[in-house]
Amino acid sequence: MSGTLAVLTLLLSPNDSKANFVVMVSFIALGFGAATMRVTFGAVQACLAEIVISLQ
Q1: Which pLDDT score is estimated for 34?
Q2: What's the superkingdom here (predicted)?
């Protein structure tokens, strides 16, 4: 969502000072989201693998 917000803000109002703030915060949120996914990927993958194995 934050990536979409950044792109839409850049497309719709690229020269507004409030738009610059929205884009900056959106990119920060995108970075935090990517870092969270990277840290939790192994645990989530193991959990999903256990669920699939238990269903078989």
Answers
A1: 93
A2: Archaea
